[in-house]
Write a structure and sequence with these properties.
three-stranded mixed sheet; alpha/beta; 15 helices; 12 strands; seven-stranded parallel sheet
Amino acid sequence: MTDPLGIDPGFWAGRRVLLTGHTGFKGAWLSLWLLQLGAQVHGLALPPEGDESLYKSLALEERFPRRLISRLVDVRDAAAVGAAVQAAQPEVVLHLAAQALVRRGYADPVGTWATNTIGSLHLLEALKHLQHPCAVVMVTTDKVYENREWVHGYRETDRLGGHDPYSASKAGAELAIASWRRSFCGHGPHQVSQLAIATARAGNVIGGGDWADHRVVPDAMRACAASTALPLRSPEATRPWQHVLEPLGGYLMLAEALHRDPDTFAEAWNFGPALESNRRVAELVDALHRHWPGHWVDASDPAHPHEAGLLHLAIDKAVGRLGWHPRWGFAATVARTACWYRQVYEGASPLACCQADLEAYRAG
């Protein structure tokens, strides 16, 4: 029986799930959700970064020693990825492993392309050798589209592009995955029939536990905690802000749909917020400060590397065909995010705060 979100706990109970990028921000949240659903989670990722890592603070390996198996693997290492896939024998794959920072992409463009594009192909090549059906959700980003600064949302059929190395590498991953699916999924002599592969493109996710440098929410929360001014590089840039749980729920629903009907759902899907959540960076920070007082200063720099100014996703397809829809508007998303950080800074358990958010989200 499905829950209010449309997710079937019975589908996930005992199911072998390979989750790449499980030590990251989104990966830690998804690990917790999958474990609560009863899944057998096989994680594949680099070690968690920084002392403030959400994954480390949740201590999921210690809490679920028999149901979370963590393997520290770089997706650029094809042999190691292959060995991990063979050990896990997954029935579902949720591929979140990525170099996900725009500024880091400028500093290391080759490594970014190798991780995001070639690493995705390493995973697909390893999955070829499975002998049982497997639903595969490959996560990219809303930044895969050729950004024309349109006021309307990009649809899954719009042209791919990407100006900066991160965005372009994710667009490259979309092309590579689509090509791999057309070439190697099927019943021909050079094809495999057990894989159903979709890609998922999410908006700008926020929520408790993101501690990355040069991201507006963790930077804002650090500034609030330290009572210092937050410098905003692009206060007028507009983004589709959504709570991290929104796309994660979409990924779970998409995996279930792929398992039921691989021919219908093996394609690209957008998971973004409602239009009212498309807000300027300055509006987001002002909203955060209503829950944790602080202040910001305009630090716009014309020499700063290019980032998109206006971005929005059309989500009609996921709403109409998957039955997925955003549940938390902008105000609820900001409130949950700011309160998570403030409570943790004041001594609350990150796990308890995540569990409270997840319970509230699943309840609707």
